[in-house]
C-alpha cells in the first residue's frame, strides 16, 4: 500500500500543476473587458459625430439664411434711401420691412454664433474620443497578442500534464484512484496531503501519534478525521 500511496502522491503533484495551469489560464486577460469599453467609446464617438454633422448642417443653413437676409436688407435699405420712393405709405412699409430684416439678421447672427460654438465643442469631443479609441485599440492589440502567446503556452503545458496524469493514474488501483478523485473533487482539487510534520497539511489539524505510527507503516489508507483527505508521509530522499 505504501508504494501505491507514493504513486498517488506523485499524481497529486501533477494534479496541482494542472490546477495551477488552469488558474493561470483563467486569469489571463483575454481583452474582453477592454473590447467592451472600446465599443462604448466607439458608440459615444458615433453619436458625437452624428451630432457634429447635424450641427454643421444647421450652421450652413444659418449662414446661407443670414446671407440671404443681409442681401435683402441691403437692397431694401438702398431702395429706402434711393429717393425713388416718395409715397409716404410705401416709405413706411419699406422702413418696417428693413427693421424686420434687421431683427432677423440679429437673430441669425446669434444662431450662427451658437452653432459655431457647438461645432467647435463637438469637434473637440470627437477629436478626444477618436484619440481615446485609437489608444484603446493599440492596447487591445497588445493584450490580444500577449493572450494568444501565453494561452498557447499554457494549453501546451496542460496537454503535456494531462498526458502525464493519464500515465500516472494507470499505475494506481481503480478503487484507490476513485476514492482519491472523489475527495479532491470535493476539496479544491487536493485529495492526498503530506502529514510528515504531525498535522494534516490540507486543513492544519493535528494528527494523533497513534495515527502517525500507522502512517509511517503505510499498511492501509488513512484519512484526516477533519477534512477526509488521504494522509501520507513521503519517503525521505
Description:
By secondary structure, this protein is mainly alpha-helical. The chain has 2 domains: 2-22 and 173-232, no CATH class; 31-169, Orthogonal Bundle (Helix Hairpins), CATH 1.10.287. The protein is 76% helix and 3% strand. It has 5 helices and 2 strands. It has helices spanning 2-27, 32-80, 88-169, 174-186, 209-217; strands spanning 192-194, 230-232. Strands 1-2 form a two-stranded parallel ribbon. Helix 1 runs antiparallel to helix 3 (88-169). 13% of the residues are buried.
Summarize this structure briefly.
With 237 residues, the protein is mainly α. It is built from five helices and two strands. The chain has helices at 2-27, 32-80, 88-169, 174-186, 209-217; strands at residues 192-194, 230-232.
CATH class group of the largest domain? Mainly Alpha
User: Which descriptor suits the 3D outline?
Assistant: rod-shaped
* CATH arch. level architecture of the largest domain: Orthogonal Bundle
Strand order of the largest sheet: 1-2
Largest sheet: 2 strands, parallel
- The count of strands amounts to 2
Q: What is the fold-level CATH name, i.e. the topology of the largest domain?
A: Helix Hairpins
Low-confidence stretches: none
Q: Whole-number radius of gyration?
A: 41 Å
Q: How many separate domains? A: 2
Q: Give the CA-CA distance, first to last residue.
A: 19 Å
Please state roughly what percent of the residues sit in beta strands, choosing from under 5%, 5-15%, 15-25%, 25-35%, 35-45% or over 45%: under 5%
Q: Which percent range fits the helix content?
A: over 70%
Structural class: mainly alpha
Instruction: Please write the string of helix (H) and strand (E) elements.
Output: HHHHEHE
Number of continuous helical runs: 5
Q: Please state the average pLDDT score.
A: 94
Give the oligomeric state.
single chain
Amino acid at each position: 500500500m505504501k508504494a501505491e500511496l507514493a504513486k498517488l502522491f506523485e499524481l497529486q503533484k501533477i494534479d496541482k500543476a494542472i490546477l495551477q495551469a488552469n488558474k493561470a489560464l483563467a486569469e489571463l486577460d483575454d481583452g474582453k473587458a477592454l473590447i467592451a469599453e472600446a465599443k462604448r467609446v466607439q458608440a459615444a464617438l458615433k453619436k458625437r459625430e452624428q451630432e457634429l454633422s447635424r450641427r454643421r448642417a444647421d450652421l450652413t443653413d444659418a449662414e446661407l439664411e443670414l446671407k440671404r437676409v443681409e442681401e435683402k436688407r441691403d437692397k431694401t435699405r438702398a431702395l429706402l434711401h434711393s429717393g425713388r420712393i416718395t409715397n409716404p405709405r410705401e416709405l413706411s412699409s419699406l422702413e418696417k420691412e428693413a427693421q424686420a430684416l434687421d431683427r432677423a439678421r440679429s437673430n441669425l447672427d446669434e444662431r450662427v454664433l451658437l452653432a459655431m460654438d457647438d461645432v467647435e465643442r463637438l469637434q473637440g469631443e470627437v477629436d478626444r474620443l477618436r484619440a481615446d479609441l485609437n489608444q484603446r485599440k493599440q492596447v487591445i492589440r497588445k493584450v490580444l497578442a500577449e493572450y494568444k502567446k501565453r494561452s498557447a503556452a499554457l494549453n501546451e503545458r496542460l496537454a503535456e500534464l494531462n498526458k502525464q496524469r493519464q500515465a500516472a493514474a494507470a499505475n494506481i488501483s481503480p478503487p484507490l484512484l476513485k476514492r482519491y478523485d472523489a475527495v479532491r473533487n470535493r476539496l479544491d482539487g487536493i485529495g492526498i496531503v503530506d502529514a510528515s510534520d504531525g498535522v494534516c497539511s490540507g486543513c492544519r489539524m493535528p494528527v494523533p501519534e497513534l495515527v502517525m505510527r500507522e502512517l509511517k507503516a503505510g499498511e492501509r489508507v488513512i484519512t484526516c478525521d477533519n477534512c477526509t483527505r488521504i494522509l501520507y508521509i513521503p519517503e525521505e530522499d
